[in-house]
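User: Sequence in, structure out. Go.
Assistant: Echoing your sequence, followed by the structure tokens.
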Amino acid sequence: MRRAYITLALLSAAALGFALRIGAAPRPVTAPKPAWVLDLKEIARLVRLPDKRLAGIFFRSTAGGGPELCARYSTDNGKTWGPTEGLYQLPTDGGGGSPEPLVDSKGELHVFYLKARKKMPSGLDIDIWYTKSSEGRTKWRPIARIWEGYTGSLNSVIQMRNGRIILPFSYMTKRNWAERGEGFDKYTYMGSFNCTALYSSDFGDTWHVSPTQLKVTAPDLGTYGAIEPVVVERKDGKVWMLLRTQHGRFFESLSEDGISWSTPQPTRILSSDSPAGLTRLDDGRIVMFWNNCLRFPYAYGGRHVMHGAISSDDGKSWRGFREVAKNPRRDEPPPPRGDHGATYPIPTTVNDGKVITTTGLPSPHFNLAVDPSWLYETSQRDDFANGIEDWTSFGVRGVDVVSHPRKPGAKALAVRKTDPEWPSGAVWNFPSGLRGRLRMRLMLNPGFGGGRIGITDHYSVPFDNLDEYQNLHNLMIEPDGEIAPGKKLNLGRWYDVEFEWDAGKRQCRVLLDGKQATTLPQYRETLGANYLRIRSTAESTDNAGLLIESVETNVSSEP
């Protein structure tokens, strides 16, 4: 878990037309891929002002005094940013980090931040402090502590349509395995943290803590339970909260008023032990960023990639599930300590229907501009002309882009197990679909030692040796090329291998050169397939392996 009082600085391919059509024709693609906000080098959190300017809010150190709350402004939707302007000078002992800003319905700026405080006789707490502007953001209220204890990162704050301001947060309790609590809590373990919310019904003049203590079971005795919640107001006026957990998925809670909350329940949204980011667009759609990652030791699934999705029905269904950012150091072994990865998204709706989100990556690549239209793409293709950048292949050996053996100037992806001590595999993300078709041009080289092609709905590292049991569909390829009784890929020959999946029917048809070869079962429920996984299953070495000339997908969000 990140201690947010210390500021962290962790770190188009236009969709091509695809002749295959599933359901309605794909909508035209004009949106660019996500791009870094390069001119804003500070680790800032963004707000949109009533005059449509964007403000990046951050703290900077000053000589002989406390930190200064500052802003840089953009008049072109984040492309360029003006000079740093001081907003409010904190007292010498008033320093903190990670300001969380909100512009209210009157145009005033509210800023929440965390400040560490030593406890007696040892240890520390992390309190929540607050200030707000008045008279058109020209004057500031003295800072005040509005909550005392030990909290995690502040990742979200909203003002409801009725004017109430909601600041969700998590806090450390005295709970442990020996003292689990009363009632039902004695029979399980709820971790060391709870979630709740601070709220103000008078534009920040007074603050109150929700009486609801939100708890989620922990998967082992050393984890937190529910932490770092985020919220968004739905169209029906209810506030939807997503809670970070260690169960491989988010939990959710609902509130009619932002004060009392429902008991957290698991959602179908898969996630590592990492927070979500939610923002509502001006037209009412919700955009979500998160780490749709599972089965890695760090953060119960890892943070190698950050994903984005969009919903037009208040989170009942989602489109996208696309990789918006990758950890630039993913090819290196993980650091021995400290947080890392593409994570901690804090998105802001800006102008023209766009979104800018933090990513947890190193400055200046801390903020990322995303066009939500990009999340609606339904087609994707790769022929490896630009290498393997769109794939992940770290922690493995024998995965390379090589010259095509029969097409001068063309490339192909080679997957071979060249070292018996190392796995061999590669992973490719594509737009999510409940139904879809993926076609690859593939050849098994003579001497092939066996492989597996998986279709699934989440990211896991290329060397994940449990993917077979977690994929939606698995095509096992024996060393002789057999994929089903009486059906095989002859070694040394190119094939068009097609996968047609249908989550409603819970199956995936496999075709070889247009003719059905087998039908694969779907092993579990899903919000839609969005990943291709290719692995060598050779027992020792396989210097022959397989080649992929190209891969292309076309998907539909309709069940």
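User: And one key feature?
Assistant: The first helix runs from residue 467 to 470.
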